[in-house]
Structure formats: C-alpha cells, structure tokens
Amino acid sequence: MNLARSTRLLETAPRSPARPEGGKIVQVSRTSDTIPEDGRALTPDELAELEAQMGAIVDASRLFKSLDEKGRAELLGISYLRTVAAGTVLFREGAEEERVMYLIKAGRVNVETTSASGPVHLADLGAGACVGEVGLLAGGPSTATVTAVEPTERVAFPKRRLQRFLDAHPAVRTRLESLVDARARDTIEKIIG
Q: Whole-structure pTM over 0.90, yes or no?
C-alpha cells in the first residue's frame, strides 16, 4: 500500500486535534463530519500497521475482498480510530445512534438483541468483524446492543464518508448489503429458535 498517499488522505480529511500516546499528531480543522471527542486520527505508525493488517483482513473478509491497494488506501483515508474499555456499549438496541460502521481492529464485542422472552445472544465478534453496518445502511434505531467484552480498538467509518466510498466501489456496497441480509436471517433464526 502507498503509505504516503494514505497519510495525505488523513492529513486532508476533516479531523479534530488529538494527542495519541506517542507518535505524530495529525491535526486538521473540525467540521460536522469529524472525529468525535473520544476518537483520534491514526498516527502514521498506526496507519502503516493497519495497512499491513488490512491485507490479512481483506483476505479473510468477504466485505473488502474486491478492494485493490488503491481502494484500501481510500478506505483507510476516510477512517479514524476509537478505543474503548471493556463494558462500553458501542450501540444500544432501539437508540438513535451516530451513523458509523466499525471494523474491529483488536478486542472483542458481544452482540445481542431482545425478544419477547428476553435477551438473545447473536454473536461474539473480534478482529476483522464489522458492526454498525445495519444502522448505517438501513437508518433508524440500532437493531442490537453491541458491548465491548475487553478493551477494543475500532476503525470507524462515518456514514457520509462511507456512503461516498460505497458509491465509488459498488462491489463493496453489494457485499455489505449481503452481509446485512445474512445477519438479519441469522438474527431471525436465533430469535425464533
């Protein structure tokens, strides 16, 4: 991957100033489509590490399989990093959440929904998994509660930026829609029993 191009994308994307633990700080102006206060831009070292990890993630991921090197660099250029402690709720079922999709970089999350008979465990997801894709594509309230089981790093893709990316990469959009459909079928099967 072209690190210089990805870093340029990061430096020109709307970002808030944030001081990561060591490493270079990428500072840009705050706009309505920026990194939230608890998020931060990827440092060049983290970006290089993520680019290396993306190769393995893409090989294992149906969602990103169609991306070439340039597509991966574009995808990373619209992202930012968020880290949460164990027990943090990323999405709460029924809530109108910020519209963002997360790719789990490290850590694990628990996904559950509620049925008439109580909570239904849907999945435990780790590195390489996506969460928030249903709300991002379908809109409306969150369809499940997603909670960090351990400290978790997530690469965040805000809705407006990701929509533009998906418009430019229709094969990824098709795979994302297929993922949403498969998860909906899986959820129905788990609720019905």
A: no
